[in-house]
Amino acid sequence: xxxxxxxxxxxxxxxxxxxxxxxxxxxxxxxxxxxxxxxxxxxxxxxxxxxxxxxxxxxxxxxxxxxxxxxxxxxxxxxxxxxxxxxxxxxxxxxxxxxxxxxxxxxxxxxxxxxxxxxxxxxxxxxxxxxxxxxxxxxxxxxxxxxxxxxxx
Length: 153
Prior knowledge:
This protein has helices at residues 6-9, 63-74, 105-111, 127-140, 144-147, and strands at residues 17-27, 30-35, 38-44, 47-48, 78-82, 94-100, 103-104, 116-117. By secondary structure, the protein is of the alpha+beta class. The longest helix is centred in the last third of the chain and has 14 residues, at 127-140.
């Protein structure tokens, strides 16, 4: 089970919908927000961006671009978090769909080729739209799908 850690952490489960301030962008698919009065890491559900070298990790093709795009769009912004089945993953990060106004940012990352669809059960409510968006981005050669030849099947 990927999540379900909230019960043992002493933290209350997430509200169904929460408006929060993005305080930091870790990489293309992980952000920090102020949630219930404390700093929380949030992992965007259903998407996976390439890794960044910013924290001593191994850089992957298009990771910097994905991280910088997320930073430019979300840092310092108020966003709405929407939750699926598991409130947290095994690393205690909140799992959420992130909305900027009416825009589902997770989906934008896939449509523009910054992220691949990454369905992780049981949080798969939007897996179909993410898979469709990835197929379209690949076919159009957007983002990582043209910049990273090894990413293209």
